[in-house]
Amino acid sequence: MAFYAGDDADAKAAVAGLLNQFGFATLDLGGLCEGGRLMQLDGALSGKHLLPQVPG
Q: Residues 2, 36, 34, 39: what is their CA dihedral angle, to the nearest 10 degrees?
């Protein structure tokens, strides 16, 4: 899972498209003020590992 945030809708769409091409599921966290805060160090999503675990 790749999180992204931003205040420019066109830029966010470009980033989401690129991440999807690399095989990531994406989640738009909104604007920089709200979403950026979630991703900052000590934010609610900081250091969260949301990648699916593949049995080895």
A: 60
Residue 26 CB contacts under 8 Å (≥ 6 apart), including other chains: 1, 2, 3, 4, 16, 19, 20
pLDDT in tens, 1-55: 888 999 999 999 999 999 999 988 899 999 999 998 888 888 888 776 666 656 6
Residue 51, strand partner residues: none
Sign of CA dihedral 32, 46, 52, 56: positive
Length of the chain: 56
Tell me the H-state helices in the chain.
9-21, 32-39
